[in-house]
Structure formats: structure tokens, C-alpha cells
């Protein structure tokens, strides 16, 4: 069993934004072609703790280099107040010849980067006819920091970033990190999520919200909204926008905003082609002029397996990781 630690994952994935985006795009293409197995994720919740959960995401990716495994990721929002990160994860990769587990990979960074790569891929695809001059980030945490890195790699000309977070202190710390990492970027902080939503033609929402609280109609017509945290937008506000998902069956469950919108509408006619279908055929989607586009990826485990497999391959090439003898019988 090869154990690949957080520092080694970071070393392998550092500065690899465009490669991460292509790995995610390839996984989406394979999924749209039907050569994946992505069962519904398993949600482990705890009585009396509505904000805490652990999710299991098993997946198989076919294609030229098949891989299979599972991500086990926890989300405990109060960790932020403890000075540790909200989400923590481990990924197991299994041999497709024997089924034996062959690698244990620290997964929180992989999870953040695959999420960001998915968001950046959608941002690049969905703004080709009208590139935004800036990016608004609602939620100043690890995910939106990675989204900023990946979107800036994929979409040229983003010279302004507008921030909002429920914690003014967290927003200020986040702004300082941006200025340090990208001094050429102008950073603006606003007091409300509505103001951030209206600030630019491209918005990313990545919060720990568990109930809808934000009306997407606050966005200017034609805005592309990356609804990464899935449960922020009021469901009634999604019925007259374009909705792009990664997988319809996955996206319409677990009380996501889209799941609640389906319950309101009684149908799924407000869902447009998936991101994988768009990658295979861009002509499959022609947006109505000035209609807001909301991208809400549920987060398929096949993306984690794709990046974890890349990490494992590189770790073996470079001799990274700790080989544990005797782990398996």
C-alpha cells in the first residue's frame, strides 16, 4: 500500500491548473459517453448535527486509462473556528486487476482542485461569447481560492475580484492572500451577497449554506453563476434561468436548490444539457440572450478518481509516498 501525504499531493499538483482542467474535462467526456460507474454518493449524517456530514463517493473511470476507487470526505464547518480546515478527505484507489487497494491518497487538496477545475472548465465554456472583466466570489474559503486560481488560468482578462463572506474578518484575510499572490488584481469587498452577485458577469458561490438564501435574479442578465455549494440559491429563482449540471440524476437529490426547484415545478424541463454533453457537442446548447446561466455540479466521484490517479502515477514516477509493507494479507 502506497500512502501519499498532503505535502506530496501539494507538490505534485502545484501550478497544474490547466492540466487539472483537462483531466476533469476528459472525465466528463468519458462520463457523457457512458464509460463510467458513478453510484449515488453516500451521506453519513449525525443526529442533532445538521451541519456536519461525511460523504462517500465511489467511482470508476473508463477510457484509455481506467481507474477505480472511493473518496471519503467530511465537512465539519465549525472546524474553521478551531483553526483547521472544514473539509478533510482520504481517497482509496483499487487495482482493476485484483480489486486490492493499492494507494491511500490524502484527498482534501484533490477534492478542492477537482471542484475548482470543474468550475473553471464551465466558466471558460459558458463565457466564450462574452468574457467577463472580473470575478465575484461569495464565500472566502479554500474552494473559492482554488476556483480563483483555476478560473484565472482558464479565462483571460479577469483583473478585478469582488468578495463577500458572512465573516468580514475572513473576507479581509482572503483579500490579503489574493493581493500577495496576484498583486496585479484589484480586490473589492462588498457587504452583501446580493451586491457580489450583481458585480460581474461571472460569479462563484462556495459556502457552507444548508438552506437557500439568495435570489439569483440579483445577478445582471447574462451572468454565469458557478453555484458550487449547491444549496444557496432560492429554488423559485432557478426556474427561469439556464441550468447546467454534471449529472441530472445526481444533481436533483439531497435537497440541493435544483432538487427543491424540481419539487416546486413538478418536472425537470428547466435543466439544460450537462457539461459532458457540451464538451462533446457545443452546439447542444444555445443560450437565450441575456438569460442567466447557473452551473451547479453535484461533484462526481469520477473527478476525484481522475486526479488521484494522476497523483498516483506521478508519485510512482518520482518515488514519492510511503510504501507500507504488510498492510494487505
SSE layout and pairing:
Elements: E1 2-4, H1 6-13, H2 17-32, E2 36-37, E3 42-46, E4 49-61, E5 67-75, H3 79-82, E6 87-94, E7 101-106, H4 108-126, E8 134-138, H5 142-154, E9 160-164, H6 168-181, E10 186-189, H7 193-197, E11 202-205, E12 224-227, E13 242-244, H8 248-251, H9 257-265, H10 275-280, E14 293-295, H11 301-318, E15 322-323
Parallel strand pairs: 1-7, 8-9, 8-11, 9-10, 11-12, 12-14, 13-14
Antiparallel strand pairs: 1-15, 2-4, 3-4, 4-5, 5-6, 6-7
What structural keywords apply?
329 residues; alpha/beta; globular; 23% strand; 7-stranded parallel beta sheet; ornithine cyclodeaminase, domain 1; Rossmann fold; 2 domains
Descriptive notes:
With 329 residues, this protein is an alpha/beta fold. It folds into two domains: 2-110 and 301-323, ornithine cyclodeaminase, domain 1, CATH 3.30.1780.10; 117-295, NAD(P)-binding Rossmann-like Domain (Rossmann fold), CATH 3.40.50. It has eleven helices and 15 strands. The strands form two sheets. Strands 1, 2, 3, 4, 5, 6, 7 and 15 form an eight-stranded mixed beta sheet that branches. Strands 10-9-8-11-12-14-13 form a seven-stranded parallel beta sheet. A hairpin with a 6-residue loop joins strand 6 and strand 7 (101-106). Helix 2 (17-32) crosses helix 4 (108-126). The longest helix is centred in the middle third of the chain and has 19 residues, at 108-126. The protein is globular. The N and C termini lie close together (11 Å). The relative contact order is 0.18.
